[in-house]
Amino acid sequence: MSFYRNAVWFVKGLQEYTKSGYEAAAKHFIIGDLDVNLSGRSFVITGANSGIGKATAHEIAKRGGMVHLVCRNKERAEEAKEEIVEHSKNQNVHVHIVDMSSARQVWEFAESFAKSNSIHVLINNAGCMVNQKELTEEGVEKNFATNTLGTFILTTALIPALKQAQDPRVITVSSGGMLVQKMKVDDLQSERGTFDGTMAYAQNKRQQVILTERWASQHKEIHFSSMHPGWADTPAVQLSMPDFHAKMKNKLRTEAMGADTVVWLAVSAVASKQPSGLFFQDRMAVPTHLPLASSRSSPADEEKLQATLEQLAHKFKP
Protein backbone atom coordinates (compact mmCIF):
# COMPACT_ATOMS: atom_id res chain seq x y z
CA MET A 1 0.00 0.00 0.00
CA SER A 2 2.78 2.45 0.83
CA PHE A 3 4.35 1.81 -2.64
CA TYR A 4 0.98 2.54 -4.25
CA ARG A 5 0.55 5.74 -2.22
CA ASN A 6 4.07 6.95 -3.01
CA ALA A 7 3.73 6.27 -6.74
CA VAL A 8 0.32 7.93 -7.07
CA TRP A 9 1.52 10.87 -4.98
CA PHE A 10 4.67 11.46 -7.04
CA VAL A 11 2.76 11.47 -10.33
CA LYS A 12 0.24 13.87 -8.79
CA GLY A 13 3.12 16.03 -7.54
CA LEU A 14 4.73 16.33 -10.98
CA GLN A 15 1.41 17.53 -12.39
CA GLU A 16 0.23 19.79 -9.55
CA TYR A 17 2.97 20.68 -7.03
CA THR A 18 5.56 22.07 -9.46
CA LYS A 19 5.97 25.57 -10.90
CA SER A 20 3.97 24.55 -13.99
CA GLY A 21 1.23 23.19 -11.71
CA TYR A 22 1.02 26.56 -9.97
CA GLU A 23 0.98 28.46 -13.28
CA ALA A 24 -1.90 26.28 -14.53
CA ALA A 25 -3.88 26.81 -11.30
CA ALA A 26 -3.15 30.56 -11.22
CA LYS A 27 -5.03 31.07 -14.51
CA HIS A 28 -8.20 30.64 -12.44
CA PHE A 29 -7.23 32.94 -9.55
CA ILE A 30 -9.27 36.09 -8.98
CA ILE A 31 -6.68 38.88 -8.69
CA GLY A 32 -8.96 41.09 -6.60
CA ASP A 33 -9.05 38.48 -3.80
CA LEU A 34 -5.78 39.89 -2.44
CA ASP A 35 -6.68 43.55 -2.96
CA VAL A 36 -7.21 44.28 0.74
CA ASN A 37 -6.15 46.84 3.34
CA LEU A 38 -4.93 45.02 6.47
CA SER A 39 -4.29 48.02 8.72
CA GLY A 40 -5.53 47.30 12.22
CA ARG A 41 -5.11 43.53 11.83
CA SER A 42 -2.39 41.59 13.66
CA PHE A 43 -0.67 38.52 12.18
CA VAL A 44 1.59 36.04 14.02
CA ILE A 45 3.79 34.04 11.63
CA THR A 46 6.11 31.29 12.86
CA GLY A 47 9.28 30.41 10.94
CA ALA A 48 9.11 33.82 9.29
CA ASN A 49 12.77 34.62 8.67
CA SER A 50 13.06 32.66 5.40
CA GLY A 51 11.17 30.73 2.75
CA ILE A 52 7.38 30.66 2.70
CA GLY A 53 7.08 32.35 6.11
CA LYS A 54 9.12 35.36 5.02
CA ALA A 55 7.33 35.58 1.65
CA THR A 56 3.99 35.55 3.53
CA ALA A 57 5.18 38.26 5.94
CA HIS A 58 6.23 40.44 2.96
CA GLU A 59 2.76 40.22 1.37
CA ILE A 60 0.93 40.97 4.63
CA ALA A 61 3.21 43.90 5.54
CA LYS A 62 2.78 45.32 2.01
CA ARG A 63 -0.97 45.46 2.65
CA GLY A 64 -0.60 47.30 5.96
CA GLY A 65 -0.96 44.46 8.46
CA MET A 66 0.93 44.35 11.75
CA VAL A 67 3.34 41.43 11.47
CA HIS A 68 4.85 39.44 14.33
CA LEU A 69 7.77 37.30 13.16
CA VAL A 70 8.27 34.31 15.47
CA CYS A 71 11.76 32.96 14.78
CA ARG A 72 14.48 30.88 16.41
CA ASN A 73 17.53 32.79 15.16
CA LYS A 74 17.74 36.44 16.29
CA GLU A 75 20.24 37.57 13.68
CA ARG A 76 18.33 36.10 10.73
CA ALA A 77 15.04 37.37 12.16
CA GLU A 78 16.35 40.94 12.40
CA GLU A 79 17.68 40.71 8.82
CA ALA A 80 14.26 39.51 7.62
CA LYS A 81 12.54 42.32 9.52
CA GLU A 82 14.80 44.96 7.94
CA GLU A 83 14.14 43.58 4.47
CA ILE A 84 10.36 43.43 5.01
CA VAL A 85 10.20 46.98 6.45
CA GLU A 86 12.34 48.35 3.61
CA HIS A 87 10.27 46.73 0.85
CA SER A 88 6.83 47.27 2.40
CA LYS A 89 7.47 50.70 3.98
CA ASN A 90 5.52 49.28 6.95
CA GLN A 91 7.22 49.86 10.33
CA ASN A 92 4.76 47.56 12.14
CA VAL A 93 6.98 44.47 11.96
CA HIS A 94 8.08 42.88 15.25
CA VAL A 95 10.49 40.07 16.11
CA HIS A 96 9.92 37.42 18.81
CA ILE A 97 12.64 34.84 19.48
CA VAL A 98 11.13 31.41 20.19
CA ASP A 99 12.40 27.90 19.53
CA MET A 100 9.26 26.10 18.37
CA SER A 101 10.79 22.75 19.34
CA SER A 102 10.84 23.83 23.01
CA ALA A 103 7.38 23.25 24.49
CA ARG A 104 8.15 25.45 27.49
CA GLN A 105 9.36 28.35 25.32
CA VAL A 106 6.23 28.13 23.17
CA TRP A 107 3.98 28.23 26.25
CA GLU A 108 5.89 31.20 27.71
CA PHE A 109 5.74 33.14 24.44
CA ALA A 110 2.03 32.47 23.83
CA GLU A 111 1.00 33.45 27.34
CA SER A 112 3.05 36.66 27.44
CA PHE A 113 2.07 37.61 23.86
CA ALA A 114 -1.66 37.24 24.56
CA LYS A 115 -1.39 39.53 27.61
CA SER A 116 0.05 42.47 25.70
CA ASN A 117 -1.00 42.07 22.05
CA SER A 118 -4.08 41.45 19.97
CA ILE A 119 -4.08 38.71 17.34
CA HIS A 120 -6.39 38.27 14.37
CA VAL A 121 -4.52 35.61 12.39
CA LEU A 122 -2.09 32.88 13.42
CA ILE A 123 0.01 31.30 10.66
CA ASN A 124 1.68 28.06 11.80
CA ASN A 125 4.47 27.91 9.25
CA ALA A 126 7.57 26.85 11.24
CA GLY A 127 8.64 23.32 10.54
CA CYS A 128 11.66 21.06 10.39
CA MET A 129 12.72 17.81 8.81
CA VAL A 130 15.59 16.29 10.79
CA ASN A 131 16.85 13.20 9.01
CA GLN A 132 18.79 11.71 11.94
CA LYS A 133 16.84 10.89 15.09
CA GLU A 134 17.32 13.71 17.58
CA LEU A 135 15.65 14.51 20.90
CA THR A 136 15.10 18.01 22.26
CA GLU A 137 16.35 18.99 25.72
CA GLU A 138 12.83 18.10 26.91
CA GLY A 139 13.26 14.57 25.55
CA VAL A 140 10.85 14.92 22.61
CA GLU A 141 11.68 13.78 19.05
CA LYS A 142 12.73 16.96 17.18
CA ASN A 143 10.40 16.79 14.14
CA PHE A 144 7.36 16.00 16.28
CA ALA A 145 8.33 18.66 18.85
CA THR A 146 8.51 21.40 16.22
CA ASN A 147 5.86 20.42 13.69
CA THR A 148 3.17 18.97 15.94
CA LEU A 149 3.63 19.70 19.64
CA GLY A 150 4.86 23.29 19.15
CA THR A 151 2.02 24.00 16.70
CA PHE A 152 -0.50 22.42 19.08
CA ILE A 153 0.65 24.44 22.11
CA LEU A 154 0.86 27.77 20.27
CA THR A 155 -2.57 27.35 18.68
CA THR A 156 -4.41 26.17 21.78
CA ALA A 157 -2.74 28.82 23.97
CA LEU A 158 -3.78 31.60 21.56
CA ILE A 159 -7.35 30.40 20.93
CA PRO A 160 -8.83 32.54 23.78
CA ALA A 161 -7.13 35.68 22.35
CA LEU A 162 -8.21 34.81 18.81
CA LYS A 163 -11.82 34.51 19.99
CA GLN A 164 -11.68 38.16 21.11
CA ALA A 165 -10.83 39.31 17.56
CA GLN A 166 -13.00 40.08 14.56
CA ASP A 167 -12.70 37.51 11.73
CA PRO A 168 -10.05 35.37 13.49
CA ARG A 169 -8.19 32.76 11.44
CA VAL A 170 -5.61 30.02 11.92
CA ILE A 171 -3.67 28.70 8.92
CA THR A 172 -1.32 25.74 9.28
CA VAL A 173 1.23 25.10 6.54
CA SER A 174 1.10 21.34 6.12
CA SER A 175 2.37 19.34 3.14
CA GLY A 176 1.06 17.14 0.37
CA GLY A 177 3.56 14.60 1.69
CA MET A 178 1.02 13.75 4.37
CA LEU A 179 -1.07 12.04 1.67
CA VAL A 180 1.33 9.06 1.73
CA GLN A 181 0.79 8.51 5.47
CA LYS A 182 -1.91 7.11 7.71
CA MET A 183 -1.50 8.51 11.21
CA LYS A 184 0.20 6.12 13.64
CA VAL A 185 -1.44 7.28 16.84
CA ASP A 186 0.49 4.77 18.96
CA ASP A 187 3.85 5.93 17.57
CA LEU A 188 3.56 9.71 17.36
CA GLN A 189 7.29 10.22 17.94
CA SER A 190 8.49 7.63 15.38
CA GLU A 191 10.10 5.37 17.98
CA ARG A 192 9.35 2.05 16.28
CA GLY A 193 11.44 0.54 13.50
CA THR A 194 14.17 2.35 11.56
CA PHE A 195 13.90 6.13 11.86
CA ASP A 196 13.09 7.91 8.58
CA GLY A 197 13.03 11.71 8.86
CA THR A 198 10.99 12.20 5.67
CA MET A 199 8.29 9.81 6.88
CA ALA A 200 8.34 11.31 10.41
CA TYR A 201 7.77 14.73 8.80
CA ALA A 202 4.91 13.37 6.67
CA GLN A 203 3.35 11.84 9.81
CA ASN A 204 3.56 15.25 11.53
CA LYS A 205 1.91 16.90 8.54
CA ARG A 206 -0.94 14.34 8.68
CA GLN A 207 -1.28 15.12 12.41
CA GLN A 208 -1.57 18.85 11.63
CA VAL A 209 -4.39 18.24 9.15
CA ILE A 210 -6.31 16.12 11.66
CA LEU A 211 -5.83 18.77 14.36
CA THR A 212 -7.10 21.48 12.00
CA GLU A 213 -10.28 19.47 11.40
CA ARG A 214 -10.78 18.90 15.12
CA TRP A 215 -10.18 22.53 16.09
CA ALA A 216 -12.63 23.65 13.41
CA SER A 217 -15.36 21.47 14.91
CA GLN A 218 -14.58 22.59 18.48
CA HIS A 219 -14.06 26.35 18.01
CA LYS A 220 -16.71 27.62 15.60
CA GLU A 221 -15.82 31.29 16.17
CA ILE A 222 -12.42 30.85 14.48
CA HIS A 223 -11.79 29.93 10.82
CA PHE A 224 -9.22 27.12 10.63
CA SER A 225 -7.50 25.81 7.51
CA SER A 226 -4.44 23.79 6.53
CA MET A 227 -2.69 23.92 3.19
CA HIS A 228 -0.02 22.49 0.90
CA PRO A 229 2.35 25.08 -0.61
CA GLY A 230 3.50 22.78 -3.40
CA TRP A 231 7.13 21.90 -4.03
CA ALA A 232 8.88 25.23 -3.45
CA ASP A 233 12.56 26.13 -3.69
CA THR A 234 13.18 27.16 -0.07
CA PRO A 235 16.27 26.98 2.17
CA ALA A 236 14.49 24.24 4.18
CA VAL A 237 14.03 22.03 1.11
CA GLN A 238 17.65 22.59 0.01
CA LEU A 239 18.91 21.62 3.48
CA SER A 240 16.58 18.73 4.36
CA MET A 241 16.09 17.15 0.93
CA PRO A 242 19.27 17.83 -1.08
CA ASP A 243 18.77 14.92 -3.52
CA PHE A 244 15.17 15.90 -4.24
CA HIS A 245 16.23 19.54 -4.65
CA ALA A 246 19.06 18.65 -7.06
CA LYS A 247 16.77 16.53 -9.26
CA MET A 248 13.77 18.89 -9.19
CA LYS A 249 15.25 22.39 -8.85
CA ASN A 250 14.19 23.56 -12.33
CA LYS A 251 10.62 22.45 -11.67
CA LEU A 252 10.25 23.90 -8.15
CA ARG A 253 7.98 26.82 -7.30
CA THR A 254 9.32 30.15 -6.07
CA GLU A 255 8.82 31.04 -2.40
CA ALA A 256 6.14 33.56 -3.42
CA MET A 257 4.23 30.85 -5.31
CA GLY A 258 4.43 28.59 -2.25
CA ALA A 259 3.17 31.42 -0.05
CA ASP A 260 0.29 32.49 -2.29
CA THR A 261 -2.39 30.25 -0.76
CA VAL A 262 -1.20 31.04 2.79
CA VAL A 263 -1.68 34.75 2.05
CA TRP A 264 -5.04 34.11 0.36
CA LEU A 265 -6.29 32.11 3.37
CA ALA A 266 -5.01 34.77 5.79
CA VAL A 267 -6.36 37.90 4.15
CA SER A 268 -9.07 37.35 1.53
CA ALA A 269 -12.76 37.73 2.29
CA VAL A 270 -13.62 34.78 0.04
CA ALA A 271 -11.35 32.38 1.98
CA SER A 272 -13.21 32.98 5.24
CA LYS A 273 -16.49 32.05 3.51
CA GLN A 274 -15.15 28.53 2.86
CA PRO A 275 -16.10 25.92 5.48
CA SER A 276 -13.66 25.82 8.40
CA GLY A 277 -11.25 22.88 8.73
CA LEU A 278 -10.45 22.23 5.07
CA PHE A 279 -7.11 21.49 3.36
CA PHE A 280 -6.14 23.82 0.49
CA GLN A 281 -3.85 23.77 -2.50
CA ASP A 282 -3.64 26.70 -4.93
CA ARG A 283 -6.65 28.50 -3.39
CA MET A 284 -8.89 25.44 -3.65
CA ALA A 285 -10.05 22.94 -1.04
CA VAL A 286 -8.68 19.51 -1.99
CA PRO A 287 -9.12 15.97 -0.59
CA THR A 288 -6.96 14.92 2.38
CA HIS A 289 -6.64 11.33 1.13
CA LEU A 290 -5.55 9.74 -2.16
CA PRO A 291 -8.12 7.45 -3.84
CA LEU A 292 -8.10 3.90 -2.44
CA ALA A 293 -5.15 4.71 -0.19
CA SER A 294 -6.55 3.43 3.14
CA SER A 295 -5.04 6.40 4.97
CA ARG A 296 -8.06 7.46 7.05
CA SER A 297 -7.93 7.25 10.83
CA SER A 298 -10.87 6.29 13.03
CA PRO A 299 -12.60 9.06 15.04
CA ALA A 300 -11.27 7.32 18.19
CA ASP A 301 -7.67 7.59 16.95
CA GLU A 302 -8.15 11.26 16.05
CA GLU A 303 -9.54 11.91 19.52
CA LYS A 304 -6.59 10.02 21.01
CA LEU A 305 -4.14 12.24 19.08
CA GLN A 306 -5.62 15.36 20.63
CA ALA A 307 -5.82 13.85 24.12
CA THR A 308 -2.17 12.69 23.94
CA LEU A 309 -1.03 16.15 22.85
CA GLU A 310 -3.05 17.82 25.62
CA GLN A 311 -1.37 15.57 28.16
CA LEU A 312 2.12 16.16 26.76
CA ALA A 313 1.56 19.92 26.45
CA HIS A 314 0.37 20.14 30.06
CA LYS A 315 3.55 18.40 31.20
CA PHE A 316 5.65 21.33 29.92
CA LYS A 317 3.32 24.17 30.91
CA PRO A 318 5.23 26.65 33.15
From TrEMBL:
Cited InterPro entries: NAD(P)-bd_dom_sf, SDR_fam, SDR_member_12
Species assigned in the record: Coregonus suidteri
Top-level division of the source organism's lineage: Eukaryota
Protein name, UniProt field: Dehydrogenase/reductase (SDR family) member 12
